[in-house]
């Protein structure tokens, strides 16, 4: 990937030189970051707020493929997927740590690309990079991000608060990241068979971006606050709508009914899924990596968000014995099954 570019051996800098080089231009923006990179531990102070912490581990070959994921996008996405978990608690994300395992064959320029993406995400979402760890890896690239944030105790939204009669809502649209991935996989296969053929991503920009450059929905957290809505339950859509709905229902000990026709699917996602012989609804239900927010609200709050075009009401919560159901466009009742992406199903 970096064959024609400048290559600086990481060993020239040494571990401490590398950490300094990668982190010295990151700004600290939050009062809560008392001490960031440079000591044995970072020091944070959140006064009377509840502190939220979430970690993700991304492994080359399992979670990403460097054949088509640009390193800058990978850095950006590694941060985003993590912030999304803080937003899913209705919290404000403020800091991250980044731990990275890199092959000694990786040039410095490659690691710089990853940190450019991390910096972009930090700037865009107002996040301080406050630490991490750096090591060599013999088994591909490893990135682990921990995100830290805060919320008032009364504002935190768990997965287990859904009540019978609550409305099930989801932000944005679904299935795009999965369909985008199918296009990238297809082009990779074509490239492997004939390296002279350029990838054909024409007209697929939105879904490719959904896969390579997802953005956590901090704007939805802000919007809910503005509308004075505290969801009764919330989760981010990382593994597919069906799987996330079932997490909310299981943890809340409830059932639900959703309507296929209400599931928001972008036209490009829809058409591309069809082109590939996939059912767009199945892509939305089981695809994953959309990083939208799925939440339940009290019926009393309906009037406050009913006109918001970025939020779809897809169904409602029922009692536990009714199970999780989807009414199809032809009015057939289906039992929802979580066939979400499973890292252990290799
Ligand atoms: P230690 O030996 O105590 O683990 P390190 O030398 O690994 O310390 O780290 C020194 C400082 O640099 C610490 O503040 C650590 O959090 C930070 N750091 C190390 N690696 C990274 C990284 N990849 N990204 C951001 N900060 C890092
Ligand atoms: Mg260390």
Automatic annotation (TrEMBL):
Mg(2+) 3 binds at residues 40, 85, 236. ATP binds at residues 115, 132-133, 159, 238. It catalyses: thiamine phosphate + ATP = thiamine diphosphate + ADP. Residues 38-150 form the PurM-like N-terminal domain. It holds the Pfam family AIRS. Coiled coil: none annotated. It is an enzyme of class 2 (transferase). Mg(2+) 4 binds at residues 40, 54, 85. InterPro entries: PurM-like_C_dom, PurM-like_C_sf, PurM-like_N, PurM-like_N_sf, ThiL-like. Mg(2+) 2 binds at residues 56, 85. Belongs to the thiamine-monophosphate kinase family. Catalyzes the ATP-dependent phosphorylation of thiamine-monophosphate (TMP) to form thiamine-pyrophosphate (TPP), the active form of vitamin B1. This is Thiamine-monophosphate kinase. It comes from Pedobacter steynii.
């Amino acid at each position: 990937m970096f064959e024609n570019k400048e290559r600086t051996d990481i060993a020239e800098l040494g571990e401490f030189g590398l950490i300094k080089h990668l982190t010295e231009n990151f700004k600290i923006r939050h009062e809560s970051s008392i001490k960031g990179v440079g000591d044995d531990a970072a020091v944070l102070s959140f006064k009377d707020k509840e502190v939220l912490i979430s970690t993700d581990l991304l492994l080359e070959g399992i979670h990403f493929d460097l054949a088509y994921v640009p390193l800058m996008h990978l850095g950006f996405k590694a941060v985003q997927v993590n912030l999304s978990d803080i937003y899913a608690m209705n919290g404000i994300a403020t800091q991250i740590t980044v731990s990275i395992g890199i092959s000694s064959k990786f040039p410095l320029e490659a690691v710089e690309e990853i940190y450019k993406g991390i910096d972009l995400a930090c700037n865009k979402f107002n996040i301080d990079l406050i630490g991490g760890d750096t090591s060599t890896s013999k088994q591909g690239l490893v990135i682990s991000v921990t995100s830290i944030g805060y919320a008032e105790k009364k504002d935190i939204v768990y997965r287990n608060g859904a009540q019978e009669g609550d409305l099930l809502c989801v932000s944005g649209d679904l299935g795009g990241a999965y369909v985008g991935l199918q296009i990238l996989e297809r082009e990779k296969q074509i490239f492997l068979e004939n390296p002279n053929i350029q990838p054909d991503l024409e007209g697929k920009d939105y879904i490719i971006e959904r896969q390579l450059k997802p953005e956590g929905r901090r704007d939805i957290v802000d919007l809910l606050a503005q509308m004075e809505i505290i969801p009764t339950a919330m989760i981010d859509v990382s593994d597919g709508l069906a799987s996330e709905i079932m997490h909310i229902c299981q943890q809340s000990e409830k059932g639900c009914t959703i309507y296929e026709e209400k599931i928001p699917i972008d036209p490009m996602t829809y058409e591309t899924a069809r082109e590939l012989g996939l059912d767009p609804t199945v892509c939305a239900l089981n695809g994953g990596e959309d990083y939208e927010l799925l939440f339940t609200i009290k019926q009393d709050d309906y009037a406050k968000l009913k006109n918001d075009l970025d939020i779809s009401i897809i169904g409602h919560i029922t009692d536990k014995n009714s199970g999780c159901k989807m009414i199809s466009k032809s009015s057939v009742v289906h039992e929802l099954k979580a066939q979400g992406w499973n890292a252990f199903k290799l």
